[in-house]
Write a structure and sequence with these properties.
This protein is an alpha/beta fold. The protein has 14 helices and twelve strands. The strands form two sheets. Strands 1, 2, 3, 4, 5 and 6 form a six-stranded mixed β-sheet that branches. The termini are far apart. It comes from Amycolatopsis rhizosphaerae.
Length: 357
């Protein structure tokens, strides 16, 4: 299963394959960097087509967490975990506790939290076996659902993109297409409706659409991702799984701004330049969706929602700084964001080599 891991040249410090036969647990924990501190990133539970696909995903996601945490100004490195399987079929208390013991075995090099297919209640179970877990329920002393500040942060990034493109952060009257109305997407719709935007939403789940329509009957519904992409939009907000921006979808995209919550939205690095060439302003995903990790990281210091929300508000200014750097250096925003993150990891990480008795 691990053949070729070292050949990938991904820059990861550690990749751990976890298997508990009794519970059926098959998981991979990837620690990309601890230059800024312990690695923090969520646990994704998903029915991958193959173990190789799961490995590809966890490597990409954990690297993204290093950059996300660095840009968010956190004293944390980047990590991620995936549990292979359909969460509706495999998640049991025993499996989650077995996973928690593997997290504990890393001795604090990795802190876990929620992601796709896992929830606050799951983290409460994991916490029975490890203290290196965040995103727990408020009843258990945690920060609760990290989707709250994830959506808020994306909204702040979108406002910054609007100001950069149109000279004002206001979204009143702007037509915004939200792809994915799950944990984060439906909360983002709420922020947009409150801001006076005209929202069009699409999701593969009829239940998710029904929830949005019940809460926001003024929202329009597009019949699938292709139908949404084909619509004239001011902003396209991908909030489902990654890879939605690819060589087939970008030419069809009719939006001036892309700003959404999904991780790894670009199918490959060249898409960033393609968007720029088409005149589409791209707000890097790991920059604008950092509100969730800001929320759960605050839990490590004794959670205070108001403090965490203030930190997440800074995504507005950081997004503006990325766009300014991109223009100054003549590079796409994704490249500019990478440079800012890498600069902080190098400068602060270097201090770790200075012995402090």
């Amino acid at each position: 299963m691990t053949d070729g891991v070292f050949d990938r040249d991904s820059g990861h410090e550690q990749v751990v394959f976890c298997h508990d036969q009794a519970t059926g647990l098959k998981a991979i924990i990837a620690i990309h960097s601890t230059a800024l501190g312990p690695a923090l990133g969520g646990t994704r539970c998903y029915p991958y087509r193959s173990e190789s696909d799961a490995l590809d995903d966890v490597l990409a996601l954990s690297k993204g967490m290093s950059y996300k945490n660095a840009l968010a100004g956190l004293e944390l490195g980047g990590g991620k975990a995936v549990i292979i399987g359909d969460p509706a079929a495999i998640k049991t208390e025993a499996l989650l506790r077995a996973y928690g013991r593997f997290v504990q075995s890393l001795g604090g090099r990795y802190y876990t939290a929620c992601d796709v297919g896992t929830y606050v209640a799951d983290m409460d179970v994991v916490a029975k076996e490890t203290r290196f877990v965040t995103g727990r329920s408020t009843d258990d002393g945690g920060a609760g659902d990290s989707s709250v500040l994830t959506a808020f942060g994306v909204f702040q990034g979108m406002r910054a993109a609007a100001e950069h493109r149109w000279g004002s952060p206001e979204l009143t009257g702007r037509r915004v297409g939200v792809l994915g109305a799950g944990k984060v997407g439906h909360l983002l719709v709420g922020h947009l409706v409150e801001a006076g935007a005209r929202v069009v939403v699409s999701d593969v789940s009829p239940a998710a659409i029904a929830r949005v329509r019940a809460e926001h009957p003024e929202a329009e519904v597009a019949d699938g991702a292709e139908a949404l992409l084909a619509q004239p939009l001011d902003v396209f907000a991908p909030c489902a799984l990654g890879g939605v921006l690819n060589d087939a979808t970008v030419p069809a995209l009719r939006a001036e701004i892309v700003c959404g919550a999904a991780n790894n939205q670009l199918a490959h690095a060249g898409i960033d330049k393609t968007l720029q060439d088409r005149g589409i302003l791209y707000a890097p995903d790991y920059l604008v969706n950092a509100g969730g990790v800001i929320q759960v990281s605050d839990e490590l210091h004794g959670f205070d929602f108001a403090r965490a929300r203030r930190k997440a508000s800074a995504i507005f200014d950081t997004t503006k700084a990325v766009f300014a750097l991109a223009e100054a250096e003549g590079v796409p925003p994704g490249t500019a964001a990478d440079r800012l993150a890498e600069r902080r990891m190098a400068e602060v990480g270097r201090l770790r080599s200075i012995l402090v008795p």
